[in-house]
Write a structure and sequence with these properties.
Blueprint lengths: L4 E7 L3 E8 L4 E8 L12 E2 L3 H16 L7 E8 L5 E3 L9 E2 L19 E3 L1 H10 L3 E3 L9 E2 L4 E2 L3 H7 L8 E3 L4 E4 L2 H7 L6 E7 H9 L6 E5 L4 E7 L9 E5 L6 E8 L2 H22 L4 H9 L10 E3 L14 E3 L7 H27 L5 E5 L6 H11 L3 E4 L5 H12 L6 H8 L2 E5 L3 H13 L4 H16 L4 H11 L1
Parallel strand pairs: 1-5, 5-14, 9-12, 15-21, 21-22
Antiparallel strand pairs: 1-2, 2-3, 4-7, 6-8, 10-11, 13-14, 15-16, 16-18, 17-18, 19-20, 22-23
Helix pairs in contact: 5-10, 6-7, 6-8, 7-8, 8-9, 9-12, 10-11
């Protein structure tokens, strides 16, 4: 099997990435298809326009196949991964009845409302893409996280009438669900023409985007935490049992059937905030970067590495996108002085990402009475040596990154490799397909400074700023009693 290839699909919020791997986990070629800007007519709506998800996958697939110089007969399978907490409303023939609904849309935080008679199926993004690729109405159970009638003990749909009533999705409107690593179908002739994928290839389901990324990072034990740097930043550890009423984390299905991930609270629009700063700087940053023959990101990292740890007290509250029951929250930067420029702002954002995750991690681990011994950082942000060192210092743990840091597609390939019998087990596949690049060790004096900064100031920051922001909300938007009722309903 040494000359065989696996395709991993990583569907995201801004693009679809498709990567060809050999069975040792080395990248053979890649393709990418950009998504259009989301339709956001108001603060509660975030929709993908047209048939954007499918078009993006087709563009990425065609890009991939143009770069593939090998024999198509050596491609053995496709692993499909896609973003979670989204909703696709489909007609009886599997085509969209309405624009696909992003995880950033308020509707996905509520039970489904059947207002359109054309809707025959309610499914996830992976379900929609699986149907387009195979013609089947099959999906993986692990991507149904949130407002879905899932039985987490049996890894299938609940048959409890009260649960079905609560989420308001009749069983005939739900796809058939399978365990991660199952074949959902085979590439149809129509899908082959649209994507360039060989007809008849098996399509293997994975789990949600974060869980499959954890697998691609090599997370198989409970002594490691994975931090996934994306539009939504997540922190995950392995779990073995379904906990009763956890307060500071929640269990999700991992990409390894029968095992769980415990996920601490993350950061919505986390790495988007970094992109926001880069784009706000605009042409001036681009000119500076061109003059140094650097990318804008490399220039930001170079300049910010000269800023002292702690940014002399410049701190950022990363509430650029908050929960529907906390609409008063806003992003905040506090602690400026006249000597600071954009490098200080950039470092402050990076430090605040690490500090926010550290506080969420501590709450989760204290509740579980179990802490990690190392962290793995994934996603494009891990390309930054500065960011890696900040994580190591803030967590006071070794921070590891792998050769492949955008590893959701690798996780999908690992699922496929085990499904097709290329490897006998997930530990086997991870050992052969996940390669470590380097590890950053904490600097003792920096770790002590971040601990003092966090314990004395940063950890308590929002308890003070939220008081002001609630007053601001009342001036500009009205009564918060309605918001309190939304929170009570959501908690219920």
């Amino acid at each position: 099997m040494s000359n065989k290839y696996i395709i991993g699909i990583d569907g995201g919020s801004q693009s679809t990435k498709v990567v060809m791997y050999d069975v040792q986990g080395k990248v053979v070629c890649e393709g990418k298809g950009l998504l259009q800007p989301m339709h956001t007519p108001d603060a509660d709506t975030a929709e993908h326009p047209d048939d954007d998800l499918w078009v993006s996958l087709c563009d990425a697939a065609q890009d991939l196949m143009r770069h593939f110089a090998g024999d198509k007969n050596d491609i053995v399978g496709i692993g499909l991964g896609s973003i979670r907490c989204c909703r696709a409303l489909l007609k009886a023939d599997g085509t969209p009845a309405a624009p696909l609904i992003s995880w950033q849309d308020a509707r996905v935080t509520r039970p489904y409302e059947h207002t359109d008679p054309d809707v025959a199926y309610v499914t996830s993004f992976s379900g929609y893409l699986s149907h387009r690729l195979t013609g089947e109405f099959n999906d993986n159970i692990g991507n149904y996280f949130g407002q879905w009638p899932v039985d987490y003990k049996t890894w299938t749909w609940s048959d409890d009438p009260e649960v079905l009533k609560k989420f308001n999705i009749p069983r005939p409107m739900l796809f058939n669900v399978q365990l991660p690593g199952s074949v959902t179908g085979y590439i149809t002739a129509q899908a082959s023409r649209a994507t360039g994928f060989p007809q008849g290839l098996p399509v293997v389901c994975t789990t949600s985007d974060k869980a499959v990324e954890a697998l691609g990072a090599g997370l198989l034990n409970d002594n490691t935490a994975v931090i996934s740097l994306g539009t939504y930043i997540a922190l995950m550890m392995n779990g073995k049992q379904l906990p009763d009423n956890p307060q500071w984390y929640w269990p999700i299905m991992s990409s390894v059937p029968g095992t769980l991930l415990y996920e601490g609270y993350g950061i919505r629009k986390g790495m988007w905030t970094v992109s926001w700063l880069r784009d706000m700087l605009g042409e001036s940053l681009l000119q500076d970067a061109r003059a140094r023959n650097l990318s804008p990101e490399d220039l930001l990292n170079e300049k910010a590495s000269l800023v002292p740890p702690g940014s002399d007290g410049l701190m950022t509250v990363l509430d650029w996108l908050t929960n529907p029951w906390e609409p008063y929250k806003r992003g905040i930067m506090i602690g400026f002085n006249a000597s600071m420029d954009y490098a200080w702002i950039y470092r402050s954002i990076l430090e605040s990402v690490a500090l926010t995750l550290k506080n969420n991690y501590d709450k989760m681990c204290q509740e579980r009475n179990h802490f990690a011994r190392e962290i793995i950082i994934t996603g494009g942000g891990s390309n930054s040596d500065l960011f890696m060192q900040i994580f190591a210092d803030v967590f006071n743990l070794p921070a590891r990154r792998n050769m492949i840091n955008g590893c959701a597609s690798l996780g999908a390939a690992i699922n496929t490799a085990v499904s097709l019998g290329i490897y006998a087990s997930y530990p086997d596949a991870v050992e052969n397909m996940v390669q470590v690049k380097d590890t950053f060790l904490p600097v003792e004096k920096n770790a002590a400074l971040y601990e003092a900064m966090n314990k004395g100031i940063f950890r308590e920051l929002t308890t003070h700023t939220d008081t002001i922001l609630k007053k601001s909300w009342q001036v500009f938007h009205g009564d918060l009693n309605e918001v309190d009722s939304i929170q009570s309903w959501s908690n219920a």
